[in-house]
Specification:
By secondary structure, this protein is α/β, with parallel strands linked by helices. It is built from 11 helices and 5 strands, in the order αβαβαβαβαβαααααα. It has a 5-stranded parallel β-sheet with strand order 2-1-3-4-5, sandwiched between helices. Helix 3 (about 70-75) packs parallel to helix 4.
């Protein structure tokens, strides 16, 4: 019988050994501009609050390596990208959507199918439309995401905001952007015809893990039966856009020849 804790430990060890920054896998990547003092303060407080909740967080000032390769690794190996959206504080070229690396971080997140959560200062919550007006066309989809406004001066308000970020990262909605063409081919949006090509046991299994958003991509990889799930390896998961955290969740429960098929008890929901 497989020991899933040993598998988890080995996966983390393998990733960490090759990582530019340790541990190599993070729950959150905080994207912000250092040209705005309020953005820096918000990012640092977010880092501390998420760490207090037991989360692994990538923030540039706390990384040994901070070059472009390290930033890209951080985005691609995180479960969620937090985008701290701010203006230029009166200086042209300093706004979040004017900073080249902020834009790169968002696009890396899109290429690797990350959930991107925009946050904003409480004082700027009426300026979302203004800020989004400065976003490049391929990033304007962020305007349809519910921004979370953060108030560093009110601890209860702040904690509510942090909890909302964690909740959305744990239960992300379906992607609302077009995955750039240089990434692995994007699976079609779930439809009755796509889902109809999949065994109900596959859907049940993936829903139980809260990974059913990957089913259309798995279908594109030829996975349609419960037995097919046994052959899903990390390469297939990469092609389907699984986050590192979701890979671990799947590998823990992936069916093997020694594992029974799930029950079809109609009383279970």
């Amino acid at each position: 019988m497989e020991n899933w804790e040993d598998i988890d430990a080995q996966l983390e060890k393998d990733v960490s050994a090759a990582a530019l920054n340790k541990p190599g896998l993070w729950d959150f990547f905080i994207s912000h501009t250092q040209r705005n003092d309020a953005a820096v303060a918000l990012a640092e407080k977010l880092y501390a609050s998420l760490k207090e909740r037991g989360k692994k967080v990538w923030l540039d000032v706390n990384m040994k390596r901070r070059d472009e390769a390290a930033m890209e690794e951080g985005v691609r190996n995180s479960g969620c990208v937090i985008a701290v959206i701010t203006d230029g504080d009166g200086v042209p070229g300093n706004a979040y959507f004017e900073r080249p690396f902020c834009l790169k971080e968002l696009r890396w997140g899109m290429e690797s199918r990350k959930y991107i959560q925009p946050v904003i200062r409480d004082a700027d919550k009426q300026r979302v439309g203004e800020f989004m007006g400065g976003a490049p066309d391929d990033l304007k989809f962020l305007g349809s995401v519910d921004f979370i406004d953060m108030n560093r001066g009110a601890i209860q308000y702040w904690n509510v905001g942090v909890d909302m970020i964690v909740e959305r990262a744990d239960n992300p909605p379906e992607l609302n952007y077009k995955v750039p063409s240089k990434s692995p081919p994007a699976a079609p949006a779930p439809s009755s015809s796509t889902v109809g090509d999949v065994d109900s046991e596959v859907m049940e299994f993936m829903r139980d893990l809260k990974l059913d958003k990957y089913v259309p991509a798995l279908v594109e990889q030829g996975v349609s039966t419960f037995d097919d799930l046994k052959s899903v390896d990390e390469d297939i998961m990469d092609d389907c856009g699984f986050t590192p955290i979701h890979k671990k969740a799947f590998l823990r429960k992936r069916p093997t020849s020694a594992m029974p098929r799930p029950s079809r008890n109609p009383q279970q929901h």
